[in-house]
Amino acid sequence: MSIHERTQLLIGEENLYFLRHKHLLIAGIGGVGSFVVEALVRAGIGKVTLVDHDVVSKSNINRQLVALHSTIGQPKVEVMRQRALDINPSLQITIIDAFIKEDNINTVLLNTAFDYVIDCIDSISSKVALVVACQQQQVPIISSMGAGGRIKTDKIYLSTLDKTSICPLARMMRQRMRKAGGNLNYPVIFSTEIPKKGTAHRPIDEDASAHPRSVNGTLSYLPSLFGLHLAGHVIQHFLKGL
User: Fold this and answer.
1) How far apart are the first and last CA of the chain?
2) How much is the pTM?
3) What is the dihedral of CA 112, 113, 118, 120, to 10 degrees?
4) What b/e string do you get for 153-166 counting C-beta neighbours within 10 Å, with b at 16 or more?
5) pLDDT in tens, 165-177
6) Domains and CATH numbers, the chain
7) Contacts for 175 with CB less than 8 Å, ≥ 6 apart
């Protein structure tokens, strides 16, 4: 009996074969990205590349699939790799333990033919670099906007970046994308809920002169819903005929 028997009943053998031959890049394996990977692998995607530079910490346990007491201190990409292979031992999976920056995008990440890229990164500079690089190379990409500081499930929407509102991360993305010469007409998942403020601290990818940013609190289900929406959009993109 196939692990994708129920999926095949819904979408058919031909479409399941089609998904099995897709290669996806998921950047950022945290509260959003870990659920993206899980949903894609369970849906039948046959090849994934995971990118993240971080290790599991205790504060991740409230929202990330990779975060357990037994995995604290381990690289997120490695924990997710083991979990994904436990779901589908036939999965082709590559992990890249790296922090995405403009100077490593083309040489490290986009030298492979990806069918879709899913951006679940927190860092604005990294998000912009990845999105612009994908657009230049005509690789489809979708981004997650801010999921922290929110509790309302009915405020989550799929739109294009140029049509987002309320979300502070989306506003900053629009500004930075314009400066970088990027196209704002690409899909994103965002929330129209006004985020509750967190505690200010300096981002890890900026220098000492950078302005502090707000780190928002999170609830278990909000990042996961963002991740499932992202995965759902990509699967539906591949199964346009259904």
Assistant:
1) 24
2) 0.93
3) 10
4) eeebbeeebeebee
5) 999 999 999 999 9
6) 5-238 (3.40.50.720)
7) none
